[in-house]
Each structure stands twice: as structure tokens, then as C-alpha cells.
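anyone else get weird line breaks when pasting these?? whatever heres mine. first is seq + C-alpha cells for prot A
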Amino acid sequence: MSQGRSFFSRWVSDPRYASAWVLALLVLALVFIYRGAPDTVTHTPRLESPEFRVHTVERTPVTLTLHSQGTARARDRLALTFRAGGEVVEVSESMASGNWVEKGELLVRLDPEPFELEVAQRRHDVESAKLHLEQAQAKATIARRSPSRNATDFALNVPQLREARARVQMARAALNQAIGDLERATMKAPFSGRLEQVRVSEGQTVGGGESVGELFSSRRMEVRLPVRNEWLDLMAVFPQEPEQALDIPVRLRGSFGGRERHWDGMITRRESGVSSNQMSWLIAEVDPESGSVPLEPRVYVEAEIQGRRLPEVAAVPRSALITNNEVWVVDEANHIRRQEVGWVYRDDESVYVTEGLESGQRVLEQGSDHLLEGAEIRVRGEPQPARGGPRSGRIVRDV
């Protein structure tokens, strides 16, 4: 017995066995920790399908509203010029940029003396031509009293008589022109309107054809509106009779005088041809009484053009388009598939579909090219249990 204790004492105290003691203690500690650890619970999470908003298709008759923009311009605009030049001797107080003038109102008067002199000269020419004609007629009468058998027209004064008559006509035409220049030496407003770019003063010498200002009528305003070439059919701009005028209502909106204002108009004609970027141009005439103030030139306006009524159209959100002509359709089991559609028009919010969708079908409001054909989704706002098996487990220790 003493021998066993001595052996044990020696084995414990022997440094050669110290590593064995350390290892044994570590093993006992690990066994104690493992047996004292709490039970583990494995939770298997369910995979939820992505959630989307859907739009239910409804095919109904739709009257399209097409959008365009343009700048107002005066239909009646005239550069004020004199046919013959002269010295300005009178300028009306109304002859100033921004003033409104009535039809027939005096604007500018030139010195009439040179024009009166020209009229007198042309009257003298008329009398001279008449005298020449009488002389030719007298000679012709004498020549025809006893004509020879071989007398020519020249011998009978036939061409001389024609020349004298033409001279009288030419002198009278020149007189009429001189009288017209004298009358036009006094410039009057050809129609009621507003003046702009006036550049004339007393004592100034103006030349023939030189502009002294511009006059426009704000009572007849129009807007040139660009539209895409394929929109023409949506507005029925091709009447059955080529000479028939268009009659398409349009609503104009623009900022003028610090406030947003509205005007009503009517598209009455179309410029022929198509531009290089496949745009056509429609001309809208504006009703001056439709707004709180008359529309004036160079005011930028946005136009809402009333299109024709389409019998069966599905209006879906513009964001539903995946590509230019595809949407995601959701079936009864909430699986999605691509559907090709045909549409005629789209604005900032909607695309108007005529082919590919039927009433009652559901489409994703937000089209995405990253979804997979046949994938399952959840419809926002509809209760639906999550489906799908676990992909991985997560161990959670209960403390």
C-alpha cells in the first residue's frame, strides 16, 4: 500500500508527467462545459415572395388629350414702310413702341412737295402723250384718204398710231403711281393693333422700303404647335375633303404678367410635310376673348389638344412598361409572365394600350427587367400566406 502511494506521489511530482495532467484537466473542463450547455433550437425561416402593386386592366372608350407647346405669334403682322422715300415732317404722338392705334389713324407724314412735283410732271407727260396721239391720228387720217394700191401699214401710219396710244397709257399709269406715292406719303394704320420696334423721328430721311416700325394685331393670335407624325391619326387631322379646314379644340396655358393664364383656341390648319425628326406642325388660332387678358406675341404656352375618341383602350401606368412594348401580367396564382402590347399614345403618367390586354387582367405597376418569367409575387394589399421552403438554417441559443 505504501508502495502504491509512493508511486502515485512520484508520478504526480515527476515533471515528465505534467503535460499529461494538463491535458486531462482540459478534457474534464470541456466535458463539463458541453454537458452544462443549453439545448439548441434551429429555426427555419420562410422565404417570402417579393411584393408589388398591380393595376387591374379596364378597357373603356377614351378621348385622348395630346400635349404640345409653342410660342404665340400675331397672325396679322406688318412692317411699316414707305413705297417712296422722303423727309419726315410729322410723327404722331401715338407712333411709339407699345402704343395701340386704330385702323386709319395717322402715324407718319413725309414732305409732300417732291411728290406733288412728281404728280405735276406726270400730268404733263399725259398731256404730251395725248398731243402726240392726236398728231398720229391726223397723219393716219390723211394717209388713208388716197392710199396707193401697194401701201404698207407704215405708210398708213398704223404702227405710229399704236405707239401713240401706248404712250398715253404709259403716261397715265405713271401719273396714277405718282398720285399713289403722294397719298402714301401720309402713313396710316392699315388695321387696329399694337406698335413695336418704332424707329422714326421728325427731320429723318427714310428710303423707299425702309421699315420705320412694326404693327401687329393681338386680336388675331396663333400658335405653331409641333406634334409627332404618328399623332395625326389620333387627332383626325386628315378630313375627307382636302379643302376642308380643321376644327380641333385646344387649351393653352402659359405664364403672363406674373400669373398663370389660360386661353382657348382651335386648330384650323396643318403645315404640309414632315420635318427631319418626324414632326408635323399644327396652327392653332386663339380666341382673344377666352382669357382674362389677350394673348400677346412671344408668350410661351403649353397646349392640351383634344384627340379623337377611341372605342376600346386600356390605360395602364407608364411605369408598367418593361421595354417599349412589354408588360408583366399576373395570373390567378400570382405568377408573372411577359406580355407584348400595342399602344397608340403615352403621356407622363399613362400608356394607352389597344392590343394585348383584356379587361380584368392584372399588370405590375412597376415594370422591371430583372424579374424572371413565371416567378411568384405577392400583391400589395391582398392577404397571402408566404410560401417557399428553407434555403438555410440559423441556430439560436435559448439563454
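and prot B, same format (seq, then C-alpha cells)
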Amino acid sequence: MRKLVAALAVAAVLLPATSLAGGWATVQLTSTPKGAQAGTPWVVNLTVLQHGVTPLAGVRPEIRIAQGKLRRTFAARPTGKTGVYRARVVFPRAGTWRWTIWDGFSREHTYSPVRIAPAA
């Protein structure tokens, strides 16, 4: 009986973990912030695909930008098309910025730093 209880306890711990195994997503963008100006919105659509194939509904992707200690996060909202989300990002000042995308599902995607031009 003790062995059965121990086996059930182990299963209760392992089953939720294995249900998440193999979950990953890709993010496709309609544009990058290259050429963006400080203070001017960069509006971009993100397509989040589970395993690079299936559009993911119900996730909450974010675009995260950072320059030194200054950090901003911009939520992407559903567009009405499954798996497609839109974000409106404003870089508050010119200079080189790091940017990443949290896909809302499995991981943060890192991109090359981008140079943002001064406001017009």
C-alpha cells in the first residue's frame, strides 16, 4: 500500500510538468523598429505560432525595450485574427536600444540592438 501511495505522489508531481514539455513558439513580425524615431510609435503585428505552425490564441505577448536602466514593456493586443497581436511601441529617446519579445507562451525572443533616431 505504501508503494502505491508513493507512486501516486510521484505521478501527481510529474504529470503537470510533462504536460508542458515540448511547448515552444515562434514569433513573426510585420516590421522591425529599424528606422524608428524617438517619440514616434512603431506599430507592429506579431504572429505567435506554436511549434512554428499553429497560431496561438489567448496568449499575452509583450515587446520589451531597454536602454541602460530605462526599461519599458508594451503589451500586444489580439487583432481578431487567431495568433496575430498588435503592439504600439514608443521609444522615449534616441540611441541604441535592446529589444525582446515575450511570446506569451514559452520564452523571450532576443533581437539585435536597434539604433533609434532623434525625434523629428
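btw re prot B: The two ends are 75 Å apart (CA to CA). DSSP finds one helix and ten strands in the chain.
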